[in-house]
């Protein structure tokens, strides 16, 4: 059975990068090498793997990757921290949460 991974990297500028691969170790090495000079992560080295999910179906992995890429930073952080209460809270109306911080 083939395994597909959705992953989140923490970049040196504190931004998150979300990706998908069928070989997590190889893909992390590629990111850390910085050889693709025009890639998002190449100018944000060093990188740290913060979270990953294994999927058996590539369509599921692609769906999760797209979903997570659309999340706010704090929602991604809640996922990384396994803070399920905040993950649910940040899944609710974004403007509601944004206005409550002000």
TrEMBL record:
<dbReference type="Pfam" id="PF01541">
    <property type="entry name" value="GIY-YIG"/>
</dbReference>
<comment type="similarity">
    <text>Belongs to the UPF0213 family.</text>
</comment>
<dbReference type="InterPro" id="IPR050190">
    <property type="entry name" value="UPF0213_domain"/>
</dbReference>
<feature type="domain" description="GIY-YIG">
    <location>
        <begin position="2"/>
        <end position="78"/>
    </location>
</feature>
<protein>
    <submittedName>
        <fullName>Excinuclease ABC subunit C</fullName>
    </submittedName>
</protein>
<dbReference type="InterPro" id="IPR035901">
    <property type="entry name" value="GIY-YIG_endonuc_sf"/>
</dbReference>
<dbReference type="InterPro" id="IPR000305">
    <property type="entry name" value="GIY-YIG_endonuc"/>
</dbReference>
């Amino acid at each position: 059975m083939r395994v597909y991974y959705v992953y989140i990297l923490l970049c040196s500028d504190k931004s998150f990068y979300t990706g998908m691969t069928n070989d997590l170790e190889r893909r992390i090495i590629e990111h850390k090498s910085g050889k693709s000079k025009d890639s998002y992560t190449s100018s944000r080295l060093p990188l740290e793997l913060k979270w990953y999910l294994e999927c058996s179906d590539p369509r599921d992995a692609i769906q999760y990757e797209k979903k997570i890429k659309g999340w706010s930073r704090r929602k991604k952080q809640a996922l990384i921290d396994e803070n399920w209460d905040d993950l649910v809270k940040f899944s609710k109306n974004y403007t509601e949460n944004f206005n409550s911080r002000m």
